[in-house]
């Protein structure tokens, strides 16, 4: 398959992005990555690397800045790297797009240039999150700040398909993120969504889950509106950093602790690895008529490599056709 | 002052609750705690303790179970310990109520028996949360699942007064919890609340803050609806537990690590203490015409002692009159 990669997107672009693409095609030589962006800069980074034509470059000089209105910028800047990436998917010159750039611009270009799956009202970001039992996916992690109950039902269906097809989880457990376990708890949105999820035929709905249940791995798919999902995701990111920084300060205070810190360093590294977002690499934008993976802005080469891998798996395991089929069936119920 | 303590509320009641009351009056002998609940059981726990009449018992045989509808149960069970506590405040036989029991029942009894401050539409729970710079307070942490923008403005005013009067923070920084820093980001509620907060005269509004900013201590008061606040609070609780459990597993795997673990144990204990909710003991129900402190269901004696201390400080520093004065002024703006 061919994956269009926004080579200019992210805090460490284009260097780490190109390095990630290199690592990916080294590991999966049957695939091809199209590096989209400033041709001169990208070509310079490829100099001396024998990639056997598994990497190519498409020039796209435009840049969408962080402050710009995403949809307006996508409409105006047809030469921006993320827009050109989406166009490669639209014209079937690529089967997937991956970007670590401006999330709003990545969403807008996927929506406007590739389009929504018929029947999906609101595409959503499915963000993988490590739990003590392996990763879950949070849908929506930030695409839709305001949602209606039917959106949450569709998030559940799409998340279920993603966990099954890409993460290999049979009958994924769908949990509705709420402020109590009882079906009578919650805000208006959660109360109504509960009713819809309970009636849905093709998902394994396990009821409400609370904030504390997420990391215990109680659900494989955590369904919520994009406001709550985004707050939780960023909170988790901040909390990991804050705790590790506190631990570092507290266990290097005196000589005894410093000696101990040396001895437990490997263990703490393993913990950090288990909660490391770069292991997952990227979050799928679910509900788009093509594979679109959004990576963290601070993605390093490993995160980019894993985002490309996620795109490959979503394509190979036919996530988009599965969503198309299931949304049609859900409509007919 | 006299504090009415729900001796039957919480997972470790009445033993730990009575122990916490004992510790409190030992530390602050000028105050009195009224232990409300099953007189026989409480009296037995007090046997042989010379509390110098700083503790007394009021019999209240009723119990509100976890599954009951809070408001209905409060109306029906006038002899429930939490209802009797609230009545002691209503009749001015006590200046504050503290409970680690059913949160809904504690809220309902405070609302129905003590009443709201004039001008406050929706009382809110202000839950202290540790940050790397000292505690912040999250308002609302779960009292109101659905909110209007004006509610969030009132949460900001009440949270600001609490942080200033009880936590000793001058000009508390008020942050609106949102999914982006720009004023144009967010759901409808956050967008409208932003406008109100920006125009408010008596608070130090610093704009939007994101999930990752909370634990970095970017704001002293984190304003959000009770759904988001409750999810974040419980997520933090679960994340602390999950991370410490992972660390324990990973740093006790082999002999080298186990030796290291012994050496860093004190440091890790200090970290656990810095993120320990029992340090704060309880969350004020803000907007009530009296001091009402809601404690975690799993409160131990230290948490109860600190909840009583929070009640004392809220009363001494006249939080309720300050809210009354500021809400009147806000109305007149």
How is this structure best summarized?
The structure is a homodimer of 333-residue chains. By secondary structure, chain A is α/β, with parallel strands linked by helices. Chain A has helices at 15-27, 39-46, 70-76, 81-90, 103-114, 149-165, 188-199, 211-214, 226-250, 255-274, 301-316, 319-332, and strands at residues 2-6, 32-37, 55-59, 96-99, 124-129, 136-139, 173-177, 204-209, 221-223, 283-286, 291-294.
Summarize the structure in words.
Two copies of one chain form a homodimer. Chain A has 333 residues and is α/β, with parallel strands linked by helices. Chain A contains twelve helices and eleven strands. Chain A has helices at residues 15-27, 39-46, 70-76, 81-90, 103-114, 149-165, 188-199, 211-214, 226-250, 255-274, 301-316, 319-332, and strands at 2-6, 32-37, 55-59, 96-99, 124-129, 136-139, 173-177, 204-209, 221-223, 283-286, 291-294. In chain A, helix 1 crosses helix 11 (301-316), helix 4 (81-90) packs parallel to helix 5 and helix 6 (149-165) crosses helix 12 (319-332). The mean pLDDT of chain A is 92. At the A-B interface, helix 8, helix 9 and helix 10 of A face helix 8, helix 9 and helix 10 of B.
